[in-house]
């Protein structure tokens, strides 16, 4: 009986740990599901689709099936160039930015025009009719142009329905500050005491942040307010870096101030 109890205890612990790992994952990737047709609207099979992006290490290649469809899943968010080629048909090119937990579904028509390359700057639909949750996505380059605290909470405050709480915390849809979920690359980084962000994050290392404020799926769980979901930058084929210097001095202090002037110089 003692041996049986030990085994049951171990199994219970493994199930609990597995559940915790699944709970923390969230969604960190993007998808492209495309359709290719001819001038008459009939599906085109055998079209070679090549994806290139600064977020990818190399080129990803797909081929359309008998329905003229291809599916590219688990892609790192970023700017993508999609090129369509098939013998005897014009070459098509689409450029699109895809964010966290977003699916881009282009429908491309290829005509029998020899030697032509048609480039299209595509835009995703303003409203995704298949999406239930309410979310806003912020890329690092866009955040740099906006006034914010350069933190996960600072980015969240750019979102409708998010307000500043006590001690730099945020309230989403009026819920308590302890009712939010903080994810970094799929891992829950909230502290165990108050369920606030418990890990310091270098803002220059963040590629994109998604703020979910309503109708989130069950994969997140145990959330009264919302989800602040960030992913870090990934390597690509292009070398890049950043350099910054943050300066705070009395010239930027509001009047009348409630405390001593703040002096701060912070390189990064």
TrEMBL record:
The keyword Membrane applies. The keyword Transmembrane applies. GO terms for cellular component: cell outer membrane. It is found in: Cell outer membrane. InterPro entries: CarboxyPept-like_regulatory, Plug_dom, Plug_dom_sf, TonB-dep_rcpt-like. SUPFAM superfamilies: Carboxypeptidase regulatory domain-like, Porins. It comes from the Bacteria. One of its GO terms (biological process) is siderophore transmembrane transport. Gene3D superfamilies: Carboxypeptidase-like, regulatory domain (2.60.40.1120), TonB-dependent receptor, plug domain (2.170.130.10). PROSITE patterns: TONB_DEPENDENT_REC_3. Residues 248-268 are annotated as: Disordered. Residues 149-222 form the TonB-dependent receptor plug domain. It is a multi-pass membrane protein. One of its GO terms (molecular function) is siderophore uptake transmembrane transporter activity. Keywords: Carboxypeptidase, Cell outer membrane, Hydrolase, Membrane, Protease, Signal, Transmembrane, Transmembrane beta strand, Transport. Belongs to the TonB-dependent receptor family. This is Carboxypeptidase regulatory-like domain-containing protein. It comes from Candidatus Geothrix odensensis.
